[in-house]
Amino acid sequence: MTDDSSETKAVPVLVPMPAERAYSYAVPEGMHVVPGSIVRVPLGPREVAGIVWDGEVEALDPKRLRPISHVFDCPPIGAEMRRFVDWIAAYTLSPPGMVARMILRAPEAFDPEPWTEGLRRVAIEPDRMTTARTRVLELANDGLAWTRSGLAHAAGVSSTVIDGLKAQGAFETVMIPPQPVVAAPDTGYAAAELTPEQQAAAAMLRRSAAAGKFAVTLLDGVTGSGKTEVYFEAVSAALDEGRQVLILLPEIALTQAFLERFQDRFGAKPAEWHSDLAPRKRERVWRQVAEGGVRVVAGARSALFLPFQKLGLIVVDEEHDPAYKQEDRVFYNARDMAVVRGHIGGFPVVLASATPSVESRVNAEQGRYARTVLHARFAEAALPTIRPVDMRRAPPARGGFLSPVLLSHMRDTLERNEQSLLFLNRRGYAPLTLCRVCGHRFQCPSCSAWLVEHRFRGQLVCHHCGHNEKRPEACPECGTLDHLAACGPGVERIAEEVVGHFPDARTIVLSSDILGGVKRLRLELAAIANGEADIVIGTQLVAKGHNFPNMTLVGVVDADLGLANGDPRAAERTFQLLSQVTGRAGRTGKKSLGLLQTFQPEHPVMRAIVSGDAEAFYEREILEREKAVLPPFGRLAGIIVSAATRAEAESHARGLRRAAPVARDIHVLGPAEAPLALVAGRHRFRLLVQGERRCDMQSYLRTLLANGPKVRGSVRVQVDIDPQSFL
Ligand code: ADP
Ligand code: ZN
Questions:
Q1: List of residues 6+ apart from 188 with CB closer than 8 A
Q2: For a designed S-S bond to 676, which of 45, 52, 505, 727 qualifies (C-beta 3.0 to 4.6 A apart)?
Q3: Do residues 194 and 184 touch, judged by C-beta distance below 8 A?
Q4: By the 8 A CB rule, do 537 and 577 touch?
Q5: By 3-state DSSP, what share of the chain in percent is helix, strand and coil, each rounded to 5?
């Protein structure tokens, strides 16, 4: 292609659709686009936003192509981001268009933010002064531009006073540029005085951030050891190099406290990015990240797809957290993709955790990642003593779930005016409801799952599809009245038991069911930190990251939950969750205790938590993974086939199995009906593809899918590379 203007130019454009490649469009005369430009193009009967992509267009006559209709006035998506999109698409076997779609999530931000009209004082005196007018003019005499409402508000007068002054010629109209969503961070604002151990870790991270080369460091430190303070030093170094920084957090409930800590260190908050952000705020953050004005973003996994101009560091906090895995449309693990992004961008990545994933530990041991360890809690804070409560020897009273041992420690804690946390990773009142007369069990009509009773709402709810129904008085099967029994506990039921034992204690139940959403949740978390509750009963939402200074007792209601679910990571996950939740205790030097209610106190996970010997646990777990050729010593991919009927799903899954090529280093297991055999009315079958570490899993899967039966009717096939869930 030449620049001869008589020739129509054509470019590839990636549109946010399940498109396997970029489509070709003509560039109208006089329009200027570069790779990365965000454009609007016709697609079928509609117009969509897309990104001008790299590479050549197909050899079509450009004159026959449809033209790009508009180029947005927006910084182009950088080359690193474009490579990142292509990389993820190839790795996860997703259409590149669907990956690009994750960048294009803030369409209003493609146009520049509008300037707003403002007022500036000019040297004309109004003919008549009032006290209100005097107040306004005193403020406006600073010579700066004010918005009408801003000035009225600051002066404590109504806007009509401003209008009157304007009519008198006391103001000229000026245009005010868009304001930054967050102030610039100041790296010298308030650096913490680090302990020698923290200093050593911080120095290592600082060097890495300042070097501006790709490197991954695992920051491994017990809960409360100051990992945040330490990685702030890396953030500071990257900012001093003029780079942007991304900090990934697994849980948006955690962001509020985090933003404040960041502000204490850098004098300004980072921009936040998560699904709960108001649309207008979202657009402004996106735009200012693209323009480079926002220097630091703290966000959920989707923040990886913000259009950074000069990203120079990614921190992944709580890197082991399963919330980093997205299992919707594009299946990806944000922790792993952060490392890929760093590799493409040539900058360092920090993975922080008190309980690193086995994958990251092995990467560190084999020298692919550096590792730095914080052994001690900060200041006089000591880790809690952990003890098992053998439920066979000290069983709860009839109908209860709390052992007398745990109850007695709760009583002591209350008497000392300290806080207790009871942890149970089960929402609602009871996971199963059955009829005591006929044995009928309440099941979701569209899922293979029991309905969970939510007594507070008076409903039976499916946690997979959201189906809910009123809890009836009579059994729908045999009609007997008042003989429905709740089986097993959820947090609501534990709260009921607690209130029975400690009617005067201030008790809070926290789960994602909380009325009032994230806002309310933040308030409750702050209230707990301020000591406004005596006993907290919560799901994993309270287990992660929070700092509750007065909490000295953590009771795990069912430590065995999650050990028996056939997931290759069951032991690792339980170890991580129990370490995290017991780590909520003893943040401020008071003696603290963690109690694990368990039927298998001799289980290696319980022994590791009780002894505090994490190293022994990792060693054993790593060895077992190696023997079984499981990640990170081997590769896994899940193929999930779903359809409206069981027969369709099964026959397609079998067809895929038959299409599986023979390979020396890869084999296929299944198909088997998925443990969650029915979800939202769709029947599910799974295949598991297992390969050796060096196998070419992606090529294998591509061949398998290409040779397999055509996807038709209601059939859907999802590929899950590096699966975290096996349900
Ligand atoms: P982690 O992230 O490892 O759980 P944090 O960074 O949250 O630990 O630190 C735990 C607590 O100790 C926080 O309240 C933090 O402010 C405090 N802290 C840690 N290191 C220091 C330090 N060097 N100076 C002052 N406070 C510190
Ligand atoms: Zn359901």
A1: none
A2: 727
A3: no
A4: no
A5: 35, 25, 40
276 — pLDDT class (breaks 50, 70, 90): confident
Residue 59 Cα distances to 97, 210, 383, angstroms: 21, 45, 66
Mutate which of 195, 197, 228 for ligand 1 pocket (most atoms within 8 A of beta carbon): 228
Residue among 220, 210, 194, 230 nearest 370 (CA): 220
74-86, pLDDT tens digit by residue? Answer: 999 999 999 999 9
| Fold observed for domain 381-426+489-623 | Rossmann fold (3.40.50)
pLDDT in tens, 195-220: 999 999 999 999 998 888 999 999 99
Q: What pTM, to 2 d.p., does this model score?
A: 0.91
Decide if pLDDT at 5 tops 60. Answer: no
pLDDT of 3 > 60? The answer is no
What DSSP string describes 645-713? SHHHHHHHHHHHHHHPPP-SSEEEEEEEEEEEEEETTEEEEEEEEEEETTS-HHHHHHHHHHHS----T
Residue ranges near ligand 2 (ion) with Cβ within 5 Å: 444, 446-447, 462, 464-465, 467
388 in Cβ contact with 598 (< 8 Å) = yes
The CATH fold assigned to 634-721 is: Alpha-Beta Plaits (3.30.70)
φ, ψ of residue 511 to 5 degrees: the values are: -150, 175
Pairing of strands 419-423, 535-538: parallel
- Burial of 168 by CB count in 10 Å (0-12 exposed, 13-18 middle, 19+ buried)? middle
Residue 612 corresponds to which tokens in the numbers above?
A: 């505090």
Q: What is the end-to-end Cα distance of the chain in Å, rounded?
A: 51
298 alpha carbon to ligand 2 midpoint, in Å? 34
**Candidates 229, 264, 355: which one to mutate for ligand 1, based on the most atoms within 8 Å of Cβ?**
229
Nearest alpha carbon to residue 577 among 553, 554, 547: 554
Quick check: 50 and 82 in contact, CB under 8 A?
Answer: no
Which residues' Cβ are closer than 6 Å to ligand 1?
192-195, 198, 221, 223-229, 378, 547
The per-residue b/e assignment along 218-234, b for 16 or more CB within 10 angstroms, e otherwise, is bbbbbbbbbbbbbbbbb
Residue spans per domain, the chain: 9-104, 116-176, 196-379, 381-426+489-623, 634-721
The residue among 618, 597, 686, 557 whose CA lies nearest residue 320 is 618
H runs (alpha helix) in 416-516: 491-501
- DSSP class of 183: P
- Model confidence at 256, in pLDDT bands (50, 70, 90)? confident
CA-CA distance, 21 to 376, in Å (whole number)?
A: 51
Section 158-172 average pLDDT: 92
Distance CA 265, CA 399 (A): 50
Q: Is 105 exposed, middle or buried (0-12, 13-18, 19+ CB in 10 A)?
A: middle
Atom of ligand 1 nearest to the CA of 195: 23
Q: Distance from the CA of 415 to the center of ligand 1, in angstroms? A: 28
9-104 shares its CATH topology with 196-379: no
Q: Which CATH number fits domain 9-104: 3.40.50.2000, 3.40.50.150, 3.30.200.20, 3.40.1440.60?
A: 3.40.1440.60
pLDDT tens readout for residues 415-433: 999 999 999 999 999 999 9
Please name which ligand lies nearest the alpha carbon of 461. 2
Dist. CA 35–CA 103, nearest whole Å: 15
Q: For domain 196-379, give the CATH number.
A: 3.40.50.300
Most confident of 119-128, 279-288, 519-528: 279-288
